[in-house]
Sequence to fold (157 residues):
Amino acid sequence: MINRPLKLIAIPFVIVIMTATAVFAAEAQRTPEWQRLLEQHAASHNLAVVDSARAGQPFNFTGELDYPLVLPSTFEYTADITYQQSDAYMIALPYPPEQVRCALVEQSGKRMLLFVNYYSDGLWQNGWVIHQGPALFTTAATQSLESLGCDLPLNSL
Fold:
């Protein structure tokens, strides 16, 4: 027979373990934020997501690439430091992004390259934004994918 003090310790411990297991299971099934943003953009622009890959070297995505933003987001930065929206001054994106996802999308048989990037200023502002990539089958596209370490299968291009 288990004594009473041991029961008093065991019951809360079991409850904590069960709660933690439920939270971790729910989190594992949640769609990643970058994927939800990409799917939202695809749905609103009649695009089909063909493939995506995580960039192994996101630090190579610099402001010098100058890929335009294609989707306003809750992120309060803009690529253009002079951009104003609703009379609120915006500041430049804090390059390089912390994460980059390379995505291949298709619209009416035409394929396009998008970059879904996570930016953070390390303090207040952070979020995912989508950049339009260079035209496929160009040197710029090949160099971008190689420098970022995006392993999109060549047969999907």
Observations:
- The first helix runs from residue 4 to 29.
- The chain has two domains: 1-30, 32-152.
